[in-house]
Amino acid sequence: MLKFSRIILAVIGLLLSGYGLLARRTEVLPYLMFVLGLIILVIGLEAFQKRQKVYGWINIIAFLTILFVVFQGLLFH
């Protein structure tokens, strides 16, 4: 289930980045960062399933940091 989620999120991220690159629109960057943060969250959950707690926590903290930056950018921009 997590592998499928990671693949779907990667495709969404690829589509968002392709659109932003081809259309030269920077408005999609916060959404792209959010999708990449979700991919990091899924990787962290997979690490927890593999009993790799340190890597899981590092990825969770990275996701929370990205989430903070995305919301800060959307609210104060």
Give a structural overview.
By secondary structure, the protein is an all-alpha fold. The mean pLDDT is 91. The protein has helices at 2-23, 29-49, 53-76. It contains three helices and no strands.
Name a few traits of the molecule.
single chain; 77 residues; mainly alpha; flat
Fold topology:
Elements: H1 2-23, H2 29-49, H3 53-76
Helix pairs in contact: 1-2, 2-3
Order of helices and strands: HHH
Give the rounded overall mean pLDDT. 91
Cα-to-Cα separation, first versus last residue = 35 Å
Strand content: under 5%
Q: Which regions contain 5 or more consecutive residues with pLDDT less than 50?
A: none
Helix vs. strand class: mainly alpha
Q: Indicate the overall shape.
A: flat
Describe this structure in a few short sentences.
By secondary structure, the protein is mostly helical. Helices cover 87% and strands 0% of the residues.
